[in-house]
């Protein structure tokens, strides 16, 4: 795609992109609630900070002084993403809040169980199965809508000189991952981004290389 072309070929300075999911919130299944991190989420945020900073220091220690890069955190404006970034902020790492990184808006399907969805929107459930990338529930976004919204972030990554850790919801990271690895749109809804993993992505002129590391 043209975005991947720009990302891979216009940036003359090497850098690394990291993906991590937001920590668990006090109301994981509600978009509208925009809940704060749970106790488990706060523990996760602290572990992520320790692990990320250790990995980044190790990487920089193996580079020549003029090749070493700072780390910047990009998060959505949702409370669970911001909460996950707080330990980094306390450690002096620059944080950049970007509402465009907010998760896919589920509209009227927000908070519903699979059984409740079938009862309330039987026809929509069938359509979602047939085309999960382009389908949207009433007043919701589709994955296609989200991918279009995120195009500006891809271009900002092109201009970024530092290493970047993006902390966001799985729906967002799926779309960004698909852009970077040139995955077909139909695969986006099923791309796996486990919360237990920090994903390290190294772009080059020949494509991206990834390493998945268990956060421990």
UniProtKB/TrEMBL annotation:
Q: Which GO terms describe its biological process?
A: fructose 2,6-bisphosphate metabolic process
Any one Pfam family match given in the protein's UniProt record, by short name: His_Phos_1
SMART domains reported for this sequence? PGAM
Name the InterPro entries for this protein. Answer: 6Pfruct_kin (IPR003094), His_Pase_superF_clade-1 (IPR013078), His_PPase_superfam (IPR029033)
Which GO terms of the molecular function aspect are on file? Answer: 6-phosphofructo-2-kinase activity; ATP binding; fructose-2,6-bisphosphate 2-phosphatase activity
Looking at the record's lineage, which domain of life comes first? Eukaryota
Q: Name one GO cellular component term.
A: cytosol
Query: Would you tell me the protein name for this molecule?
Result: 6-phosphofructo-2-kinase domain-containing protein
Q: Which organism is it from?
A: Rhizopus stolonifer
Cite the source lineage: Eukaryota, Fungi, Fungi incertae sedis, Mucoromycota, Mucoromycotina
